[in-house]
Amino acid sequence: MATKYPLRTKRKEQTNKKIARAAQDMFYRKGYDNTTLEEIAEAAGVHVQTLYRHFASKQELASAGDNRWFQMFHDRINDPSRTANTFDFWRNWLTRTYIYLTSDGGEKYRKYISVRHANPLILGQLSEIRARYEDLLCISLAKDFDMSPAGVSKPRLVAGMLIAGSSYTLRRFEVDHTDLVSEATAVIDEVEAMFGHLIKPRQQ
Questions:
Q1: Which residues of the chain have pLDDT under 70?
Q2: Spatial CB neighbours of 82, under 8 Å, sequence gap ≥ 6
Q3: Which domain, by its residues, includes 108?
Q4: Which residues have CB under 8 Å from 145's CB, separation 6+?
């Protein structure tokens, strides 16, 4: 039976999302460097001290969306009921995610990417988030391949290829307005063609 969140926790989560959305809207309209935390708080309808209780810095606010998506990814790839291998899971995850994020034609998400790439401090946080994605993919691939995930292993190298390919398709989407979904899946198809033979049959 699902556990209901206390009302206080729900309100905290709602406020967190409200502040993060207000921040992204301000970043789009004014630019990251020209936006203050006071302006974000006002746009979100909260006191600036409330904002600080949820986010310690503007950099943290800028990567809030990426952290939320990572948490969802973490929960789903670790779901004990998951049956898809890592390639299929990553392909389905990126397809659903990118379709959702570009449902308005992609311009808003393109601006979101541009804001992140324009600031070195944000890029540092994104690099750390990408490393966490890679770690989870490595662990999952190690199970698929029946290998150790430690060190410079095949699971680690394949996970790195998947993450690097995803970063490349995002850059092309930002600059060249390419089809994000088709390019992202094409990268996964290519990596799977090279390493899919390593997947071991699952135990029944």
A1: 1-5, 203-204
A2: 76, 89
A3: 63-198
A4: 154, 155, 198, 199, 200
Q: Is residue 66 a contact partner of residue 129, using CB atoms and an 8 Å limit?
A: yes
User: In total, how many domains does the chain have?
Assistant: 2
Task: At 56, list the tokens.
Answer: 């310690």
Let me know how many helices (H) and strands (E) the chain has, helices first.
10, 0
CATH number of the structural domain spanning residue 133: 1.10.357.10
Q: What is the pTM of this model?
A: 0.83
Distance CA 24, CA 63 (A): 10
Rounded Cα distance, 204 and 89, in Å: 19
Residues 6+ apart with CB under 8 A from 203: none
- CB atoms near residue 107 (< 10 Å): 11
